[in-house]
Structures are given as structure tokens and as C-alpha cells.
Amino acid sequence: MINRLLKLIRRPERGWDPIPETYAREYAEIAYRAPVAVEKFDSLLRCLEGKARPAVLDLGAGPGHNSLYFALRGCRVTWHDVSSRYLAIARRAFAEKGLECRFALGYLEEAAGTYDLVLVSQCWNYCLNDSGFARKLFSLLKPGGIVYATINNEIFFREKNVRLNTLKRYARIFQFLLNSWLNVKIGHPFPSHAKIKRVFSRLDKRHRPQECSIERSGHYTVLTMKR
Ligand SMILES: C[S@@+](CC[C@H](N)C(=O)[O-])C[C@H]1O[C@@H](n2cnc3c(N)ncnc32)[C@H](O)[C@@H]1O
Known about the structure:
The protein is of the alpha/beta class and about 230 residues long. It has one domain (about 1-150, about 195-225): Vaccinia Virus protein VP39 (Rossmann fold). Helix content is about 45%, strand content about 20%. It has helices at about 1-10, 20-35, 40-45, 65-70, 85-95, 130-140, 155-160, 165-180, 195-200, and strands at about 55-60, 75-80, 100-105, 115-120, 140-150, 210-215, 220-225. Strands 3-2-1-4-5-7-6 form a 7-stranded mixed sheet, with helices on both faces. Strand 6 and strand 7 form a beta hairpin. It starts with a helix and ends with a strand. It binds S-adenosylmethionine (SAM).
């Protein structure tokens, strides 16, 4: 509810940006230097073999390093994020390579179109509601399309939380529990692995994927689903 109200007020097209300039620059430097998940991305590309130029949506794309990876391999990429600062960085990166990309500024829930592959890398926690977002992801897929998501889970939450002072720590635990057990989201709590499993096991018939795998990989929950 609170997040929904804030979404109406905090509009990226009116200049609101949650990412500070310095943070965006530093994150981009690290992201472009760090190797992307090459093996996984290549295996996803192999699943899309046979499609002339697969349509890829990079949701919560940040500086666009993953978008660029897929564009360099011939995909038609849509970059989607709420941050204009990341938008400027991603645009520059594509311009430098002389590659095309569709850029869409907006909240995760505002993504439009249908795709062969939807990438959700480390941004699931910014959605307004976990179940609603799972249904949204399904609706963004073409038949046979794939969602690949790496989701920071409760282990990531614990690692981050120990660095906070006591008051903030308890506030975050409260947010986490509210979201886990009552599906009430204040701020951006990381969903637990169990919550993600629960969300997908309870999807209604209309949004049920053909295939769905939810695996734990340390502080990530890795979701692969096929429409
Ligand atoms: C941790 S970064 C991940 C960036 C990139 N996907 C990666 O794997 O490095 C989270 C991203 O989510 C974006 N973001 C945060 N809240 C968002 C929202 N409500 N809607 C869309 N994007 C959002 C941020 O701007 C940021 O780019």
C-alpha cells in the first residue's frame, strides 16, 4: 500500500531517481568489469536457438552490462529500469558499441511487451508484491519464453543486516517477516527462498508455467521458468 502510493508520487519521468550519481558510477564500473554469468547466459541463448533475433527484456537492468551481453549476441534487447542515471550510463555503453537497444524508464510493474527471455537480475526485491510480480513476469513471456531470475534471499538479507545498528536491524527483520508471512510489503525486503517457492506453487492456472525450477545458490535463489 505504502509502496503503491510512493510509486504514484515518485515518478522517474519527473526526475525522481533512487540511485545517487556516485553510487551509479561506481556500481557501473564494477558491473562492467565483473564477468557476467557467461555460462548461464550462453545456455539460455542455446534454449532460444531457432529464433531469428530473440527478444530479451532486462528488467531492473541498471548500467546495462547484461543487456549489452545479449545485444552483442544478436538479440533485440529492451533495457528497463527506474533510474535515469543508469539509463544515461547504459545509453552511452550501447552508443560506444554502435548497438541498438530499446530503453524504457519505469517501475518493474510497468514493463510492457512480450519476450523470448526476461532477465531479472538482483532486483526482485524492488517489486511491489511478490505474487503479483510472478504473474507479471508470466505475462511478459511469449509462449515458450523463459524468465531467468537471480533473487537475493534470506542469506543475503542476514549478511547485509548484521552491518546495521540495532534499531535498523529490527526494523528490517520486521519488514522481512511482514512480507514473508502476511504478504505485506513495506520498503524492499528480500524474499526468502521459501517465499519464492510458495509464490510459484500457488500460482493460478492462468499463470502457471510449463516448467519451473527454483534452486538455491548461496545467497541467491535462482528461478528459471518457461511459459
Ligand atoms: C542491484 S541493481 C541490479 C542491476 C542489474 N540487474 C545487475 O544485475 O547488476 C538493482 C536495480 O534495480 C533498479 N530498481 C530499483 N527499484 C526499481 C523499481 N521499482 N523498478 C525498476 N527498477 C528498479 C535499480 O535502479 C537498479 O538498477
